[in-house]
Each structure stands twice: as structure tokens, then as C-alpha cells.
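Need residues for this backbone.
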């Protein structure tokens, strides 16, 4: 009973997090964090009460846990007062973090996101529940896209359901259109990835495709250049996976002679190349036709933004990146503290003074500025462990008999990986993972990659049978 309550309450929390501007205001962040901590406490109680205390299902997730734990420990160290030089007989004590309070807030937020991932791993313990998690993420993406299309069509004044939404600014419930694009990339990857990799059949596949259409349309109309570039990368990955999936049965049926292998490799490479080029051409054509003149204007403005004279006057990305690099050179080892970037950058930013950057508009550069070389090492450790977990899980699934359960688990893992890779590309020029709902969905995708498919699960078997029929 506790597990069921925690699971469905978690789905509700994930859905509600998307509504208030993606949860960016301190009040809503606090509500989200308190809800997650409460569900985690109930989950721990349930684990003590339950007779099911298997640790095997955490095997893949434990690989990711240790880098995350190291991040939290390092961030906590950044808030500790350390002895400094003696000035006039007074012992000055300093911290690594330029803003201790914000670093403490960062620790609480990352801990909450880690618990979201752990709760999914713990309670999405069947194919049926994992399917429902995916359904909720896709539904959030489709609903946000539909709301964005409605807002773009009908909004003419301040306020559209949410009071702070301004006409012509942002998209859907987001104040920034780029943040909206991050959510679309994650949800769209799940919807299309599950279909392309054969994880769903018949009616559910049709529903996923229908849900993907408004998401595709909205991300193009939002005018997010980073989102469109990431979307095209996602299309390439999906086309390649589709060619792999469709060519698998043919490989098993043909003889294994050398000539057949050479012929097969050549034809497969040609088919994949034609498919990828065709899909990419169709995607670019759709983007141009749907985006129209507003998108062309956004692309043309890129040359102006890259002009150093213009960037030095305004708060544009090249200026922010140069200032961030100057900050990194002064704090190369431990950075200025996670969450402390916004105050530390004021010393290095050159602009009109009207506004100062709050983020580096490049998550990798901000990681280096906030955590220094230590932070980058921890980030690389996390990436390596995540892909090791994914590789181990996919290898384990490939060794099992191919059935609906195995196909679902493989498709879900690959779709989640595609979503995270797409966001990794977009993070080169934006900071969408700073928005709570995007970070929550990203944590859910990490859990989908790391959750272990337990053989012999009755609920999973029932779900597979339902899908076959």
C-alpha cells in the first residue's frame, strides 16, 4: 500500500511541477522539495516494513549514486569556513563558495532530484509501472506543447492562465522559450524512441505519434535555435536506431558466409545512409516550412550576437562565455561554489551594466566555473558510470529471450538515452536543466536507464500479455 501510494503520488508531483512556470520560483521549489522528501521518508518506512528487501534491483543505480554523492559532499565542503591569512592580527575565515546560502540551496535541490530518481527505481518495479512513468512524461510534454500553441494563437495581453506570462515572450508555461525546448526534447525522445525501437505496439504507438506532432510543431514555432539544432540531432539518432531495428531480423536469416556478410554490410550501410539523409532532409524541410520568417530572423540574428563589439555592449552569450572563462582562470581548482556563479561573475562581466548574467548559458562552462577541475572530474565520473550502467543493462537484455517485456525495456532505455544526449547537446548554449521540471524529467530518464528489469515479475508478465493482445 505504501509503495502504491508513493508511486502515484510521485507521478502527481512530477506532473504538478510542470505547471507553475516549470517551478522556478522559491515558493514552488520549496513545495516540490518538501513533497519529495516526504515521499522518500514514506518509502524508507515501506522498505523496512516490506519483506521485499532485494538489493539487486539497485545494481545499476548504485553506479550513478556514488558520483552524485561525491557532488553533494564536494558542494558541502564549499560552504565550510576555512582559515585564511592573518590581517592585523585578525584570523579571516573564508569559504570556497561565493554565496554559501545559494550553494546550500543547490545541495537541497540536487538531493531532491536524486531522490526522485531513486523513487522511480524503487517503485517503478514492473513493466506496467515503468510504462505509466513514460506515459506521464509524454503527457506533460504534449499538454505543454498544446498550451504553447494556444497561447501563441490567442494571447494578446499580460497573463494567459498564469498571471506572469507576457505576449510574445517565452513559450507555453515557460518564461524562456529555450527552457520549453528542453522539456520537448526529453518528452519527444521518449515518444518517438519507444515507437522506433519497437517498445510499444498498435494503439499506444499511434497515441505516441499523435502526442509527438504538437511537440514537434511547438518546438519549431518557439524559435529556440538550440532546441531546433538538438531536435535535428535527435532525428539523426532515431533514424539510425530505426535502421538498426529493422535490419536485425534480416541479419539473422541470411547465411554467415563471407560474401554474404560483405554484401549485407554494403547494402545495410547504403540503406541506413539513405534513410538518415532522407529523414534529416524531411526534418529540415519541415523546420523551414513551419518556422517561416520568424525562425529565419532568429537565425540571421546569430551573426549579430557573435559580433564582439555588439556582445561587449549587451549581455550576449560570447561576452558571458569570455567573462566565465576569466572567472575559471582565477578559480581553476575548486571553482566559486555551486550556485555561486551569479555573484562571482559580476567582477568579470563587461557590459552596459543594465543587466548581469545569472548563468553561463553553457552548463559545461558553468560546471567548470562552479566546481573547477574537481567538479569536471566528478561530472565525467557521473557520465561514465551512467553509460556503463546503460551498457550493462542493454547487454543483459540482449542475452535474454526476445519477448514483449525485453523489447519494452530495451526501447525505454534507448529512448531515455536519446533524450539525455539531446539535452547534452542543447546544454552547450543554454541552461534548461536549471529549471526544476526539466531537471525532474531528466532525473526520471536517468532512473529509466538505471532501473533493473526484474525477470519473473507477475505484473510485468501481465502487462506484456496485454500488449500482445
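Answer:
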Amino acid at each position: 500500500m505504501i509503495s502504491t501510494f508513493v508511486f502515484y503520488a510521485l507521478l502527481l508531483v512530477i506532473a504538478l511541477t510542470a505547471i507553475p512556470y516549470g517551478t522556478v520560483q522559491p515558493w514552488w521549489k520549496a513545495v516540490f522539495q518538501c513533497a519529495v522528501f516526504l515521499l522518500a521518508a514514506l518509502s524508507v518506512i515501506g522498505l523496512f516494513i516490506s519483506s521485499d528487501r532485494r538489493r539487486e534491483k539497485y545494481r545499476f543505480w548504485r553506479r550513478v549514486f556514488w558520483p552524485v554523492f561525491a557532488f553533494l559532499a564536494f558542494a558541502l565542503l564549499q560552504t565550510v569556513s576555512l582559515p585564511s591569512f592573518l590581517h592585523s592580527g585578525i584570523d579571516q575565515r573564508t569559504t570556497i563558495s561565493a554565496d554559501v546560502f545559494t550553494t546550500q540551496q543547490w545541495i537541497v535541490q540536487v538531493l531532491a532530484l536524486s531522490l526522485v530518481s531513486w523513487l522511480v527505481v524503487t517503485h517503478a518495479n514492473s513493466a506496467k509501472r515503468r510504462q505509466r512513468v513514460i506515459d506521464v512524461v509524454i503527457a506533460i510534454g504534449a499538454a505543454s506543447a498544446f498550451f504553447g500553441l494556444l497561447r501563441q494563437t490567442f494571447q494578446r495581453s499580460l497573463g494567459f492562465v498564469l498571471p506572469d506570462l507576457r505576449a510574445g515572450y517565452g513559450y507555453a508555461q515557460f518564461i524562456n522559450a529555450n527552457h520549453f525546448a528542453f522539456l520537448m526534447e526529453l518528452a519527444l525522445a521518449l515518444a518517438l524512441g519507444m515507437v522506433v525501437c519497437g517498445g510499444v505496439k498498435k494503439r499506444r504507438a499511434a497515441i505516441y505519434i499523435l502526442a509527438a506532432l504538437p511537440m514537434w510543431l511547438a518546438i519549431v514555432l518557439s524559435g529556440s535555435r538550440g532546441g531546433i539544432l538538438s531536435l535535428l540531432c535527435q532525428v539523426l539518432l532515431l533514424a539510425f536506431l530505426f535502421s538498426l531495428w529493422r535490419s536485425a531480423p534480416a541479419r539473422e536469416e541470411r547465411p554467415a558466409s563471407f560474401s554474404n556478410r560483405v554484401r549485407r554490410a554494403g547494402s545495410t550501410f547504403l540503406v541506413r545512409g539513405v534513410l538518415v539523409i532522407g529523414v534529416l532532409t524531411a526534418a529540415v524541410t519541415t523546420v523551414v516550412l513551419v518556422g517561416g520568417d520568424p525562425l529565419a530572423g532568429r537565425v540571421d540574428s546569430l551573426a549579430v550576437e557573435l559580433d564582439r563589439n555588439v556582445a561587449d555592449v549587451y549581455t550576449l552569450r560570447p561576452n558571458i562565455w569570455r567573462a566565465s572563462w576569466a572567472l575559471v582562470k582565477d578559480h581553476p581548482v575548486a571553482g566559486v561554489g555551486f550556485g555561486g556563479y551569479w555573484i562571482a561573475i559580476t567582477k568579470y562581466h563587461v557590459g552596459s551594466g543594465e543587466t548581469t548574467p545569472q548563468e553561463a548559458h553553457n552548463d559545461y562552462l558553468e560546471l567548470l566555473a562552479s566546481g573547477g577541475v574537481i567538479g569536471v572530474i566528478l561530472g565525467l565520473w557521473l557520465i561514465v558510470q551512467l553509460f556503463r550502467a546503460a551498457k550493462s543493462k542493454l547487454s543483459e537484455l540482449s542475452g535474454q529471450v526476445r519477448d514483449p517485456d525485453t523489447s519494452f525495456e530495451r526501447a525505454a532505455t534507448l529512448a531515455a538515452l536519446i533524450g539525455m544526449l539531446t539535452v547534452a547537446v542543447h546544454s552547450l548554449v543554454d541552461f534548461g536543466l536549471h529549471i526544476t521540471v526539466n531537471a525532474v524529467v531528466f532525473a526520471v530518464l536517468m532512473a529509466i536507464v538505471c532501473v533493473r528489469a526484474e525477470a519473473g515479475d507477475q505484473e510485468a508478465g501481465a502487462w506484456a500479455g496485454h500488449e500482445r493482445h
